[in-house]
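Weekly sync, protein design subgroup
Attendees: M.S., D.O., the rotation student, P.L. (late)

Item 1: inverse folding check
M.S. brought a backbone from last month's batch and wanted to see whether the design step gives back something sensible before we order anything. D.O. pointed out we never logged the input encoding, so this time it goes straight into the notes. Structure tokens as presented (395 positions):
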């Protein structure tokens, strides 16, 4: 049975910081962030937004795009590394906010930025095996990427969610069996239980990402090559979508893959094969679990090439680490469907924050888990605060 992405939805905060402005405030040449890292804007959530509200908003868009009824969702998984509770999963709040059926398997997955991909692979196997019995899986990657103010990681923050509806009607992308995985216990990036900010050994994390890419890519070549009986290389792809902590990382990744394939000019194909996938991420920043899927949405909404029936290579990396290289084939009308979501317009409508405003929000977010809930219930998916140790949301 075929399985893959039937629809997708994106949520980003309505506010962002201009990276050139952040660079000036930190006494750094703007070129370092904009060209050196390849990011122009980073999304910054206001205090009424958290991993739950972003997830619910993205899911609403994915379900509405194909008119999916609540009772048709048989599995809801949220992949996140910025959960809101040690025990209760983000997915339970989302189930409540969206009014999904009680006959639904609901849980959360964690493995840094790989958590969403772990859930997606599980859901795809569930559909392929026939166990889904016609039901769909809603996989949501939702995160708020946060490093300390003034640290080298600061310009690589971001926030957002991507929801993926997985079913046996893959109107966007059919996922192919035969991926390559790579896992290695490394301390490149982590967030201790007592901290809101991630800790990162930045340059080492870049090397860990590239090592994992090589491991997963070679594993995929062996698996897919054995199944297909031919030597597989990246020449098979009309596009490559890499995990994007910042745009320059995708360039390094692509250079590495092409070099492994023996390409003497490994950068020559970058703009054609990778460029369209970076249009949206360069304006949002790192959204951890959702980063690679935002890049996929960017490819489908920005590419000028007709990708129908063409193959896309996908590389997901989660620090710590676990990585997977897998592939999908673009469905007819997929690009028109994603364009119709108006993702570029969604980003254009956002408001720029001044640096003092951004710093004030960063401080306020430290105490969000204990903020007393507002009395006025309000509407829309908003985080209102806590009451009797319970998180309260506007529906
Ligand atoms: P840094 O040390 O401040 O920057 O931090 P740098 O000195 O390495 O410079 C960055 C680039 O800017 C360099 O380019 C410079 O040459 C260039 P490169 O050599 O890499 O090609 N540059 C300039 N370019 C133009 N004009 C200028 C200029 N000046 C310098 N004036 C670092 C960079 C990425 C380490 C830091 O931002 C960081 O620690 N970020 C967080 C970690 C991260 O994103 N790691 C990525 C791999 S791990 C991963 O992806 C997993 C993750 O998503 C987490 C998860 O899985 O959950 C992070």
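Designed sequence read out in the meeting:
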């Amino acid at each position: 049975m075929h399985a893959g992405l039937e629809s997708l939805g994106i949520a980003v905060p309505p506010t962002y910081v201009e990276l050139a402005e952040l660079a000036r405030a930190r006494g750094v040449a703007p070129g370092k962030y904009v060209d050196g890292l390849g990011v122009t804007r980073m999304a910054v959530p206001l205090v009424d937004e958290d991993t739950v509200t972003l997830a619910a908003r993205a899911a609403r868009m994915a379900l509405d795009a194909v008119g999916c009824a609540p009772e048709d969702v048989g599995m809801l998984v949220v992949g996140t590394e910025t959960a809101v509770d040690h025990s209760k999963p983000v997915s339970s709040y989302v189930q409540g906010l969206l009014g999904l059926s009680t006959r639904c398997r609901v849980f959360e997955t964690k493995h840094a930025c790989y958590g969403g991909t772990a859930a997606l692979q599980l859901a795809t196997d569930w559909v392929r095996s026939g166990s889904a019995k016609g039901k769909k899986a809603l996989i949501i990657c939702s995160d708020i990427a946060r490093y300390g103010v003034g640290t080298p990681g600061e310009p690589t923050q971001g926030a957002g969610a991507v929801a993926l509806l997985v079913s046996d009607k893959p109107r966007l992308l059919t996922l192919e069996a035969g991926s390559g995985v790579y896992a290695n216990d490394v301390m490149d990036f982590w967030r201790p239980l007592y901290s809101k900010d991630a800790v990162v050994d930045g340059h080492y994390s870049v090397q860990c990402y590239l090592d994992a890419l090589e491991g997963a890519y070679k594993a995929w070549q062996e698996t897919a090559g054995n199944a297909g009986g031919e030597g597989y290389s990246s020449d098979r792809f009309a596009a490559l979508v890499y995990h994007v902590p910042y745009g320059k990382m995708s360039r390094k990744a692509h250079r590495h893959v092409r070099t492994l394939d023996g390409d003497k000019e490994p950068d020559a194909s970058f703009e054609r094969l990778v460029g369209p996938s970076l249009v949206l991420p360069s304006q949002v920043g790192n959204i951890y679990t959702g980063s690679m899927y935002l890049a996929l949405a960017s490819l489908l909404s920005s590419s000028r090439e007709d990708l129908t029936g063409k193959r896309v290579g996908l590389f997901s990396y989660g620090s710590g680490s676990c990585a997977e290289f897998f592939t999908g084939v673009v469905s007819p009308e997929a690009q028109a469907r994603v364009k119709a979501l108006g993702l570029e317009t969604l980003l254009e409508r956002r408001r720029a924050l001044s640096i003092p405003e951004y710093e004030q929000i960063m401080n306020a977010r430290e105490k969000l888990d204990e903020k007393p809930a507002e009395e006025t219930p309000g509407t829309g998916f908003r985080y209102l605060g806590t009451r009797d140790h319970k998180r309260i949301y506007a529906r």
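Discussion: DSSP finds 13 helices and 17 strands in the chain. Residues 184 and 321 are 5 Å apart (CA to CA).
Action: P.L. to compare against the previous round before Friday.
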